[in-house]
Specification:
Strand order of the largest sheet: 2-1-3-4-13-12-11
Distance between the termini: 14 Å
Radius of gyration: 15 Å
Order of helices and strands: EHEHEHHEHEEEEEEEEEH
Shape: globular
Largest sheet: 7 strands, mixed
Number of helices: 6
Length: 208
């Protein structure tokens, strides 16, 4: 299992959480190791533009693309999820993302920002990511920006993306399961037992 090292601030907490969930973990920017690993975690904290610049500096967009082309699992976390969309808009600045999903990450429509703390989510009944978790379970969020719409139209029978939603001011995308590409806006590595179960669910998906 590889945690992609592109200068993000939550590398070590992601590494510890994935290791506690039962995986052997390496933190590296080596493209061969990142492409060939059983699973790749793309963490991210801070500004969209800064994370995207860091990702480009290690050719992370190519790594993600190669993995997905081969059906190899990728898990994005927080801004590591946001950069999977086409673009991010922060403080009037638009930054191009990796474009794995259509859509824009922008500021939440809420009276209090950042959205910081524990919140419930609305997962599809057939979600693998949230399997075995109570619908009232809470996960830890810290963000002011998110994808507030889901625009991908798959059209493939049995392969429709599974989108999980949360609400802070208005609805936003909290998690996605889309073929080999999964992601969470919240931090599973900071979400206690619920986050640990979620990471084990992802590792089960990777193993199968």
């Amino acid at each position: 299992m590889v945690i992609l090292d592109y200068g993000s601030g939550n590398l070590r907490s992601a590494e510890r959480a994935v290791a506690r969930a039962g995986a052997e973990v390496e933190v590296t920017a080596d493209p061969h190791a990142a492409v060939e690993a059983d699973g790749l975690v793309v963490p991210g904290v801070g500004a969209y533009s800064a994370c995207m610049a860091g990702l480009l500096s290690v050719k992370g967009q190519r790594i993600i693309g190669k993995r997905l082309a081969g059906g190899r699992p990728v898990l994005g976390i927080c801004v590591g999820m946001q950069i999977l969309f086409e673009r991010g808009v922060e403080h009037g600045e638009e930054t191009e993302g990796t474009g794995e999903w259509p859509g824009t990450v922008d500021r939440l429509k809420a009276d209090v920002l950042p959205h910081m703390g524990w919140n419930t989510v609305r997962a599809p009944a057939d979600s693998q990511l949230f399997a075995g978790l109570d619908p009232e379970e809470r996960f830890y969020f810290v963000h002011s920006y998110a994808a507030r719409t889901w625009e991908l139209e798959s059209g493939l029978p049995g392969r429709e993306p599974k989108v999980t939603w949360a609400n802070h001011g208005d609805d936003f995308v909290a998690a996605v399961e889309n073929g080999p590409l999964w992601a969470t806006q919240f931090h599973p590595e900071k979400s206690g037992d619920a986050g640990a179960q979620l990471l084990r669910n992802w590792l089960d998906f990777v193993a199968n």
